[in-house]
Amino acid sequence: MRTEKLLAPSILSADFSKLGEEIKTAEEAGADIIHLDIMDGRYVPNITFGIPVVEKIRKTTDLPFDAHLMIVEPEKYVEDFIKAGVNMISFHMDATIHSHRLVDKIKNLGAKAGVVLNPATPVNTLEEIIYYIDYVLIMSVNPGFGGQKFIPQTLNKVSKLKNLMKETGREDILIEIDGGINAENISKVSKEGVNIFVAGSAVFKGDIKENIKKLKEEMYVL
Ligand code: DX5
Ligand code: ZN
Predict the structure, then answer these.
(1) pLDDT tens digits for 153-183?
(2) Rounded distance, CA 179 to CA 139, Å?
(3) Atom of ligand 1 nearest to the CA of 144
(4) From CA 58, how far away is CA 65, in angstroms rounded?
(5) Least distant ligand from the CA of 114
(6) Beta bridge partners of 67
(7) 189: closest CA among 216, 219, 167?
(8) 171 near 211, Cβ under 8 Å?
(9) Is 37 one of the annotated active-site residues of the chain?
(10) Residue 50: which of 30, 29, 74, 15 has the closest Cα?
(11) Which H helix or E strand runs over 24?
(12) Which end of the chain, C or N, has fewer beta carbons within 10 A?
């Protein structure tokens, strides 16, 4: 059984006037992955940042970059994101027409491919694509904004996904969770079997080092 546990701070809640410094602080404190929330104002009602910012921050850290694309027609941009230094890319299946083709494209360009489930998207939408992907991102809030409250029912999807992974022989898939994760709930979420924990406000609001230390302590409690 896979027991990998990785913390992925989302820079959405960082201070953008000193983004590089905040990423370095997060890395020194033990962050495992940097989560990049890419929003286009169409798939979600918010706009964040794009490829030029990713190119710049790539120089500040050796940690893997995990781009969560909340954009329509993600297939148009994955190549540029990967060239800018992104190592993992996830997309929402209802934002593209040919999900399988897109997964192939991401993998052929040398990155890991993931698909995202919104709170109302059932696990069984993965029944066919599961054979091809590297990870699944379960949204525990509605995508679009940081600092929202964790939706507890979304956690039920972890065991459903684990069943599907077993049935399809894909127990190597990593499970990522995103939204409202904090030091109070991360241990419970971890016990369900989640591997990658995205946290924005719980990392970047207040003392980054202290926050990461606390989250990592709680994350490993099994
Ligand atoms: C929401 C984003 C999340 C968000 C997490 O659309 O996908 O990654 O930044 O932020 P917190 O941890 O503050 O809920
Ligand atoms: Zn995200």
Answers:
(1) 999 999 999 999 999 999 999 999 999 999 9
(2) 6
(3) 6
(4) 8
(5) 2
(6) 36, 89
(7) 219
(8) no
(9) yes
(10) 74
(11) helix 19-29
(12) N
